[in-house]
Structures are given as structure tokens and as C-alpha cells.
Design brief:
Blueprint: E1 4-9, H1 15-28, E2 33-38, E3 48-50, E4 56-58, E5 60-62, H2 68-77, E6 83-87, H3 94-107, E7 111-116, H4 126-134, E8 137-140, E9 153-157, E10 163-164, E11 178-181, H5 183-191
Parallel strand pairs: 1-7, 1-8, 2-5, 2-6, 6-7
Antiparallel strand pairs: 3-4, 9-10, 9-11
């Protein structure tokens, strides 16, 4: 039975690693998968999903306004596909999440989305909010704060290592820009800004 899944976490929790491993498990069993990632995120190379631990795979991309149902339908028309994997799912638009849900329901293909739950201001991304509302199953990919507690928040840092609390919701970056922390350490850092 096909389902819409949302695997969420903070930065540096290993979401891309989990995605790539799950896709590999299908491929190892002789099944095809289809990988998609956000087109504006080229940190790992254009149209590529990669993990900090060194594994990666080529992927299709999505951009704002793309019809995700049409993308999946086109892929299925080109041959069997056991599962669709979407990295950086927080960047999906609400309408695109609905399109993914329609693909699961009507095309009977599982869709596994991996992304951030909240931004550096502690607010839901539109794609994450829609996935939290529509996903059949949700799973948290956990990481830890420097204090050892579960990290549930993300801080955006300036060049001097100071926490920021204002700015555009979307700014592509990695360890040089973002730090995952527990809610207490996020609150303390942001309140001191």
C-alpha cells in the first residue's frame, strides 16, 4: 500500500544519508527508485543528493511551480519505479505536497520526503507544514545538541558565529551557516540577539 512519508529533522541529522540508504535498499533488490532534490541547492553539485559522510547519487530536481504529480507520472510512464524519494522537502510548496499526495493515492507509488521541520526562526517551512498535515506516516531523524539533549531547532549564524533571528527564510548553507541545538540553547541564543 502506497503512502506519503515525511522524515523530518534539524540540520546535520543525516536525512540525506537515510534517504540514500533507503534508495540503495530498493536498488539492491532489483527495484528502481526516482530521486528528486531542490533545484536551487547545488552544494553537492547540480542535481545531486549527497551526505556529509561521503555518499551521493544523481537526482532529478524540483523548483517552485513544478507539477510534482506530472513529474512522477512521467517517471512512471518511462518504466517501473518502486519508490519516489524527495530530499530538501521543506522547500516544496503546499500545492506540490498535495500533488505528491495525489500521486500516492492515484498512481499507487510510495513517496518518501526528507526535510527540515522548522527554520532558524523556529517557524515551519510551508512544505513541512503541508507534509505534517498530509503525510500518512512521519518519522523524526534525530541528532543531538552540543549539550547532549535532542536537537530540535536550527540556529543560523553570521560570519562571527553569532545567532541570527531575522532574515529570509531560505538561505542555502551547511555547517558554516547553521547549527542544530536543543530548544533551550536556541531560545537562549536568540533571546540574546
Amino acid at each position: 500500500m502506497a503512502k506519503l512519508y515525511f522524515h523530518y529533522s534539524t540540520m546535520n541529522a543525516g536525512k540525506s544519508t537515510v534517504l540514500l540508504q533507503a534508495s540503495h535498499n530498493y536498488i539492491e533488490r532489483g527495484m528502481q527508485t526516482h530521486l528528486l532534490t531542490y533545484g536551487f541547492d547545488d552544494r553537492a553539485g547540480k542535481a545531486r543528493i549527497a551526505s556529509r559522510i561521503g555518499i551521493g547519487a544523481n537526482a532529478d530536481t524540483f523548483l517552485p511551480g513544478d507539477d510534482m504529480y506530472a513529474k512522477i507520472s512521467d517517471r512512471l510512464n518511462n518504466g517501473p519505479c518502486a519508490c519516489i524519494f524527495i530530499d530538501e522537502a521543506q522547500f516544496l510548496e503546499k500545492e506540490q505536497v498535495w500533488q505528491l499526495a495525489h500521486a500516492v493515492d492515484d498512481l499507487k507509488v510510495p513517496v518518501m520526503c526528507y526535510g527540515l521541520r522548522v527554520d532558524f526562526r523556529g517557524e515551519l517551512f510551508p512544505g513541512s507544514a503541508a507534509l505534517l498535515a498530509l503525510a500518512d506516516e512521519m518519522r523524526e531523524v534525530r541528532t543531538i545538541c552540543h549539550c547532549g539533549k535532542k536537537a530540535s531547532m536550527v540556529m543560523r549564524m553570521d560570519a562571527d558565529g553569532n545567532a541570527l533571528k531575522d532574515g529570509a527564510q531560505v538561505q542555502i548553507g551547511g555547517n558554516e551557516t547553521y547549527v542544530s541545538v536543543c530548544r533551550r540553547h536556541w531560545r537562549e541564543a536568540v533571546e540574546n540577539v
